[in-house]
Amino acid sequence: MKKLFATMFVCLMMVALVSGCGSSNTPEGVAGKAVECMMKKDFKGLVDLTALSDEEKAGVVQLLEEKGAKKLDEVGGTKSFEIADKSVDEEAGTATVNVKYVYGNGEEDSDQMHLVKDADGNWKLSTKK
To answer: What is the rounded average pLDDT for all residues in the chain?
Structure first.
């Protein structure tokens, strides 16, 4: 019984350490989370990561549900992705993250995600380049 509790304690500590180290408030963390939202077709979650007003968000979610889902279906969804590299200008509060995608149909693609820091210091996807 003592050994069981010790094992559970070690497992809980490992989970706490891993989740604490993987902060998503970094440019690459936000970019990765955005791609994961796309992979799940969680367009609301994706738009929540974007620097848009609440009024703009609803329209963008609807557009993505109509056109984005269709485009993802055409390529067989996103099979995997990799954050290739990033450049961050902390002083200006801007960043660019390069992402490489592998789609379900085997095609590969890459894209740049532009990010900005909001007033609260959180990184958000930018709609401007």
So the answer is: 83
